[in-house]
Design brief:
Length: 302
């Protein structure tokens, strides 16, 4: 029998799948429902220090190969959302808190509140590609990634995982910067900056014009990013982008990821996607003679 358990910086997962931030994560009830459907862990929506409305519609475009979104990080703020986190944890969900802010102090402030609510780890959203001042600029400065990570690490006693942007020339160097800042692991990748235009209207479809592309179209980018990062740092990697099957998950794991996040696949496959991915992973691992997920991590490096 294949062992699907994995551990990331002391956070033990029953299987290597996580709910990605931005999907079915607005309430404690929805987080718990996803966990009970089979996810190894659930990541909250990105939470800031104060409530934020986000962008006006249209905010999402469904494309042939994924989703293009620019929602603008809407959230109720760290105080209100703490109740949702506690509800999910009370139901025995393993919760990772996603945080953002305009500067390092705000990131740390929200991370402390998340830790107080009981999350197992912090995911730092350093790389939102469509919200000015709250991601893109940070993600494109190695110094900022290092400094922001250090600020959060100094503020909390739980693992910290910066989420990195693919919209840079060498993502592995940013992972190294996060490692220097004390990161316990990194998440790769966030969505790819993109655009869709409606010819009939002669204008961009999204109200924000630009958005973040997710889904199968970005999986090869994500796999390459994880592969490069694995060769440059010693901390664990969590792979994200287009994970919609056990085969896709194993691409990331064999590239070097210890776990994967699932988001866009929920749109087409529903909550059953986590059980389908883990069953297919177990079957494929058995077929290639591997007895556990841990044995598969990084095997593509030879």
């Amino acid at each position: 029998m294949v062992d699907l358990r994995t551990e990331i910086a002391g956070v033990r997962l029953r299987n290597p799948t996580m709910l990605a931030s931005g999907f079915l994560d607005e309430t404690g009830g929805s987080l718990l429902r996803v966990f009970n459907a089979g996810a190894g862990a659930v990541v909250t929506k990105s939470i800031g220090p104060e409530a934020r409305e986000g962008y006006p519609n249209p905010i999402i475009v469904e494309l042939d190969a994924g989703l293009l979104n620019a929602v603008g990080l809407p959230n109720p703020g760290m105080v209100e959302f703490g109740r949702e986190v506690r509800q999910a944890i009370k139901g025995k969900a393993l919760v990772i808190g996603s945080v953002y802010g305009k500067d390092a102090e705000e990131y740390a402030k929200v991370a402390v509140k998340m830790a107080e609510a009981g999350v197992a780890a912090i995911e730092m959203n350093l790389s939102c590609p469509h919200t000015k001042g709250l991601g893109t600029e940070i993600a494109q400065s190695e110094e900022a990634v290092r400094e922001f990570t250090r600020e959060v690490k100094d503020a909390v006693d739980i693992p910290v995982f910066p989420k990195l942007s693919p919209n840079v020339s060498d993502i592995a160097s940013f992972a190294a910067a996060a490692e220097k800042g004390g990161a316990d692991g990194v998440v790769a990748i966030n969505t790819v900056k993109a655009m869709a235009i409606a010819p009939e209207l002669k204008m961009p479809i999204l109200a924000n014009r630009y958005g973040g592309l997710s889904g199968p179209a970005i999986r090869p980018i994500g796999v390459r990013a994880v592969y490069d990062i694995y060769e440059k740092v010693d901390i664990p990697v969590i792979g994200v982008g287009g994970v919609d099957s056990g085969r896709a998950a194993l691409e990331y794991i064999m590239a070097g990821a210890k776990a994967v996040q699932v988001g866009t696949a929920l749109v087409g496959q529903g909550l059953g996607v986590f059980e389908r991915i883990t069953k297919e992973m177990a079957s494929l691992l058995e077929d290639v003679g591997l007895r556990s997920v841990e044995e598969a991590v990084g095997v593509a490096h030879g």
